[in-house]
Amino acid sequence: VRKLIVGNWKMNPNSLVEARRLFNSVAKAAKRFQNVDVVLCPPFPYLAALRPAPSALLGAQDVFWEEKGAFTGEISPRMLKSSEVSYVIIGHSERRRHLGETDEMINKKVLAALKNGLRVILCVGETLSEKRRGQTKAVLRRQLQHDLASLRLAALKPSALIIAYEPIWAIGTGVPETPFSANEASRFIRKATGRIISPKVAKNIRILYGGSTNSRNIFGYLIMPELSGALVGGASLDAKDFTRMLEIANLL
Ligand code: PEP
Fold first, then answer.
1. Atom of ligand 1 nearest to the CA of 171
2. Looking at ligand 1, which atom is closest to the CA of residue 234?
3. Residue closest by Cα to atom 3 of ligand 1
4. Cα gap 163→230, rounded to integer Å
5. Of 7, 34, 52, 86, which residue is the least packed, with the fewest Cβ within 10 Å?
6. Which amino acids are annotated catalytic?
7. pLDDT tens track for 73-98
8. Is 0.90 surpassed by the pTM of this model?
9. Distance between CA atoms of 49 and 52, rounded to whole angstroms?
10. Residue closest by Cα to atom 4 of ligand 1
11. 97, 171, 209: which to mutate for ligand 1, most atoms within 8 A of CB?
C-alpha cells in the first residue's frame, strides 16, 4: 500500500502569502517522491486560492452535510469539489472538543462527503483519562459504530475511506503514542470497521497514526504493518521537517 502523509495546518498560517509559500515549497519538494501520496489541508480561505499539484493534493479540515441553503458559515461537499479539493478531515478531536461536534454530526458529514466523491479522513481516538481507565477499545468501537453508521462502503472503493487513529492526549503535546501501541489500536480499528461495513473493504482501507509525529519519529510508525501513513499537525507547518517526513515515507 502506498503511504499517505496528510498535513493538517489547523488555523495556520496567518496570511495567504505564507500559505502559498508553504504549499509551493512542499509541492515542489514532493515532486521527488513518487512513492508517497501527499495531502495538505489548509484553512478554507486558502483552499480556494491554492491549486492542487500532482505531488500535493488538497484536503479540507471540515465539511457540512447539507447540499446548500440557509446554513450560515458552512461549506458543502460540492463547494469543496469545485475548489479541486479531494480529501476532507472529519471528526478531528479539536472540532469534537471546541465546536461540540457529536458522533451523529460526524456521521452525517461522512455520508455527505462520500456521496459527493470526497475521500474521507475520519479521526478517532481516546482521551488520557479514557486510556488510563483501560477504555481505549470501547471508545474507538463506539466512535466507529456511530461515525460509520449507515455506510454502504461495499459499493465504494476502500481508497474513499481513511481512518486516522489520533489519541487525543498525543495531539500537539510532544508526547506521541508508541508505534507498537498505535499499531495495536489500528489493528482493532480495522477489525471494528470490518464488522460495521465489510471485512473485505476494511482489509484494504488506509489507517494513519496522528499525534506529535515529526521527521525524527515518523519512521517507527510507517514500518508498522497496520499503518499506512500519518496525519501530521504541527510538523506540517515546517516545510523542511515535513519534507523530510515525505522523504522517509517515500523510501518505505
Ligand atoms: C493533528 O492535528 O491531527 C495532529 C496530529 O497534530 P500534531 O501532529 O501537532 O500532534
1. 10
2. 9
3. 233
4. 10
5. 34
6. 92, 166
7. 999 999 999 999 999 999 999 999 99
8. yes
9. 10
10. 233
11. 171
